[in-house]
């Protein structure tokens, strides 16, 4: 189980604004921040973003959501915060029974997912 994941971004302020908006529907918020970095998350998991070197090559990571409504809200909030759609909310039977997810690209091109196995 991961405690947190960290990666460099091109613009901490822009990425922080994106992640704060996109992850709010999943119950996440800024936990700590300093000059050139921020930690966003909850007790369920965190991301560290910073400008302490070159931006990371695009990666993929997923956050567990409590419900399909939370996945839907994540996608909507992420798009409104400047994310680019990479898969509207919906069932993904190719990933497993009941796998309901949405995907967005963040400002640096990272593929961010919210997923639930909940039927509601």
Automatic annotation (TrEMBL):
Write down the superkingdom of origin: Bacteria
KW Transmembrane helix (keyword) present: no
Q: Which Pfam families match?
A: Glyoxalase
- Which residues belong to any copy of the VOC domain? 1-117
Q: List the InterPro entries.
A: Glyas_Bleomycin-R_OHBP_Dase (IPR029068), Glyas_Fos-R_dOase_dom (IPR004360), VOC_core (IPR037523)
What are the GO MF terms of this UniProt record? dioxygenase activity; lyase activity
Keywords of the record = Dioxygenase, Lyase, Oxidoreductase
- Spell out the protein name for this chain: Catechol 2,3-dioxygenase-like lactoylglutathione lyase family enzyme
Species annotation:
Roseiarcus fermentans
């Amino acid at each position: 189980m991961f405690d947190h994941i960290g990666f460099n971004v091109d613009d901490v302020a822009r990425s922080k604004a994106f992640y704060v908006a996109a992850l709010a529907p999943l119950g996440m918020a800024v936990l700590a921040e300093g000059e050139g970095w921020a930690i966003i998350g909850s007790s369920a998991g965190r991301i560290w973003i910073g400008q302490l070197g070159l931006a990371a090559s695009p990666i993929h990571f997923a956050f567990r959501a409590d419900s399909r409504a939370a996945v839907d809200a994540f996608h909507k909030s992420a798009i409104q915060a400047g994310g680019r759609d990479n898969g509207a909310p919906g069932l993904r039977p190719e990933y497993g029974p009941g796998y309901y997810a949405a995907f967005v690209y963040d400002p640096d091109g990272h593929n961010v997912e919210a997923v639930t196995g909940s039927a509601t």
